[in-house]
Write the structure tokens for this entry.
Amino acid sequence: MKSSKTALALALGIGVFAFQPAAQAADTVSLRLNTILNGWHCPWHMARDKGWFKEAGIEIREIGEGRGSADTAQLVAAGTDTFGLVDPAVVIAGVSRGLPIQSVYSLINKSLLAVVSAADKPIKSAADLKGKQYVTLAGSGALQMFQAVLAANKMSPGDVKILTVDPAAQYATLMSGQVDAILIGLDGVPDLEARGFKYHAVTYPELGVNTISSSVATTTDLIQKNPDLVKRFLAVTRKAWEEAIKNPDAVVEACLAVKPTGSKEAFRKQLTDVIGALRSENNKDKPLGFGAEKDWQMTLQVQKDYRGIKTDAPLSAFYTNDLQPQ
């Protein structure tokens, strides 16, 4: 009798086990950065190292370095990468040309773009811009928005010279004296400091143009077909940035784990500069990642007024807050 009960129990157990649904497979995604690695890219590395993506049912295939926002936008639109760090100016320009992408997380809401020149030959104001030569990355947000800076100061692209190079060559081009200044975000300045370069920086807002600097973008197809994945990715993103504010050292350590030859001081400065620009006056009372309508409207208007973007699309074509974690 006992053996019969045991056999029955085993049979029932096997039956239950056999019909248990398989664990849901994690969604595999990739994140394309906008440039080579720097300190404010590493909250995502930290989140991956801590297992936060895994807890959210996400497998990070790659967090890859970028070659400018325009290139990242193209990779995301093509489906090569799932998410990308893309300047909203590039999103607007891309969507206006039919690129199927949208910003889903407004990351840096104060412009960190700057004209950085040698300290002994500084470019201090708009009056110093004309007739100079500048180096930057092809398709970068810094280059695209510089056209708005020129227009805002009644200059045309013909009033300056632009040299575009690969990411590895941009600093050397400036330091060798081949150009007068570099167009970059302030997060790139520590790399110059680490090389012993004495510089002067004037920001785009100081030159009359202030826009949102960076966002997380993905395809409209993914937003429509798998909004839950986008929500989970953004929830981890917000958690990572909240942790970065409280514990920047953990983010710096994540940077060094990826790039041991990097400068701890440079990574930290890049991160803290961006932390100070996560919120604008228009979203200071909102959760991280929330895009303020006024900020997006200004970003769009700058594109229309100074970069010749022609579009009647509503703001909702370029960004959404609907997938923000609650």
Observations:
- Strands lie at 27-32, 58-64, 83-86, 101-108, 113-118, 133-137, 161-165, 181-185, 199-203, 214-219.
- The longest strand covers residues 101-108.
- The two ends are 57 Å apart (CA to CA).
- The chain has two domains: 28-110+212-317, 113-207.
